[in-house]
Structure formats: structure tokens, C-alpha cells
Amino acid sequence: MKRVRRSGEERRDQIARAALAIVHERGTGALSIASVAHRVGVAPSALYRHFPDKDAIVGHMITRLGAGVRANLERAVAEARTDAVEALGAFLTRHVEFLLENRGFPMLIFSDLVLQHPGRRAAMLATLDHFRGTIGQLVREAQRQGAVRSDVDPEAAAFVFMGLFMPAGLHWHLAGGRTDLVGTVRRAWSIYLSGIAVPRVPAARARAPRRTLRQEKRS
To answer: How many helices (H) and strands (E) does the chain have?
Structure first.
């Protein structure tokens, strides 16, 4: 069987995905050059051609995950020019899919590999701040389009938006993936939208004639 040759960047991404899978399945304590090499199916010495040590692999994981989040956000901003609320919902769907494809992401964020490393912690905070800021921007655009109430605080709405998937993702992870993450987030989105959207007046009520003063006196 002919072995497929990968470019350097493709191999680095493969290594990062393997490392993230180990984090998801066995925790950050199981992460090592040897375990990642075994997962990829190469000798440990082959990994050193791409990364000098485990820390470099962790750094690449964080960079790769941050880039994925930012790419989805940029796509949502482009879509918001037509319908900001629809763009928010589409982004939420894509982000949940991204979490399902990168299942070790939540565990990595809250691990000592990030929290006890100033550079990684700052990088992850920058990604979260960008996330929050962009969602706030989308809420403002939805307000400009008349779909979201003007009294809604965009920054607070952005934090609540993040709560649509973070607790559900944690519960899903603790349950070993046995809960309906997609369905839970979809239902949470419906509740969120009903709380910020401009109320729609039913057509029948909008057409109903007002009672005259004479009718009021008779009743």
C-alpha cells in the first residue's frame, strides 16, 4: 500500500488533532511525545521533525483551535449583512459542530497546560474576548436591522450567548457524550431568541379595529 506523503503543515495539524484526541479520551496527563507518536502511527523521532517538544504541540493546538473559532466568526460577520439573527444562529450551529470535531477543546482550555502558562492563558483569553466582541457586534447589527430589541445590552447578550453552549458542552463531556448536545443547544437558542427579539404582533390582532368611544360606553 502506497503511503500518502503529507506537507509539513498537514503533518503538524495531524499531530495537533491526535494530541487533542488524547486530551479528550485520557486527559492532559496522558499527553506526551510517545503517546502522540503512537496515535499518529509514527516513531517518536518523527515528531521532532515538526515540534521540538510537547509544549510546542500544545501551543500549536491552541493556535489551531483559535484560528478555527475566528474563521467561523468571520463567516458570521459576512452573513450578518443580510440577516444578523440568522447569522448568529448559523454561527452557533457551526460552533457546536466545531466542538464536536475537537472534543478535547473544553478540557484543554481549563487545564493547567493553559491556566498555568501565561502566554497560552493570554492567547486563550484573547480568543474569548474576540469571540465576545464579535457576538456583541452581531447583536448590534441585529438591532440596526430591527430584529433585536433596542434595550438589549449587546455585551450582556454576548455573554448569555456563550452560555448557550458552554454549560451544555460541559454536561455533555461529563456524561461521556451520551447527551444530546445539538438538541440542547438548539432549544436554548430558541429561548435566547425569544428573550431578545423584537415582539411580532399577530396579523389578526394588527388588523383588528379599535373600539369607538360610543361602543366603550355601551359595554
So the answer is: 13, 0
Mean pLDDT, 10 residues at a time, the chain of 219 residues: 64 94 93 95 92 94 93 94 94 94 89 93 92 96 96 97 92 86 94 92 45 45
| DSSP label at residue 53 | S
Taking each helix axis as running N to C, give the angle between helix 84-101 and helix 54-80, from 0 to 180 degrees, rounded to the nearest 10. Answer: 160
Q: φ, ψ for residue 4 (rounded to 5)?
A: -80, 125
Alpha carbons 139 and 152: distance in angstroms, whole number? 9
What does the chain come to in residues? 219
What pTM, to 2 d.p., does this model score?
0.82
3-class DSSP state of 104: coil
| Boundaries of every domain in the chain | 54-198
Q: Which CATH architecture has domain 54-198?
A: Orthogonal Bundle (1.10)
